[in-house]
From TrEMBL:
UniProt entry keywords in alphabetical sequence: Growth regulation, Transcription, Transcription regulation
Name assigned to this protein: Transcription factor ILI5
Organism encoding this protein: Rhynchospora pubera
Residue span(s) of domain BHLH: 1-51
Example GO molecular function: protein dimerization activity
Stretch forming the signal peptide: none
GO biological process, one term: regulation of DNA-templated transcription
Domain of life: Eukaryota
Membership in a protein family: Belongs to the bHLH protein family.
PROSITE patterns xref list: BHLH
Length: 84
């Protein structure tokens, strides 16, 4: 059985770039209008990194809130189970 990979056409690449660009929020999308694929990829990576930082910040804030709550309450148990 051959393990050859099918080549991606320029049209398919352009379609994927357009789809990726549509996933960026509007302010970041404006920075990449008619931009090169490399600029779009850099902006996408930057956006993903900012999302990771935001998730970490929210997680830290949630942990702080949980610590101040009654440890035996049903709400705390629900939150803990969702985090695990």
């Amino acid at each position: 059985m051959s393990s050859r990979r099918r080549r991606i056409t320029d049209g398919e690449i352009n379609e994927l770039i357009t789809k990726l660009q549509s996933l960026l929020p509007e302010p970041r999308r404006r920075n990449t209008n008619r931009a090169s694929a490399s600029k779009l990829l850099k902006e996408t990576c930057s956006y993903i990194k900012s999302l990771h930082r935001e998730v970490e910040d929210l997680s830290d804030r949630l942990s702080d809130i949980i610590e101040t709550m009654d440890g035996d309450s049903p709400q705390v148990e629900i939150i803990r189970s969702l985090l695990n």
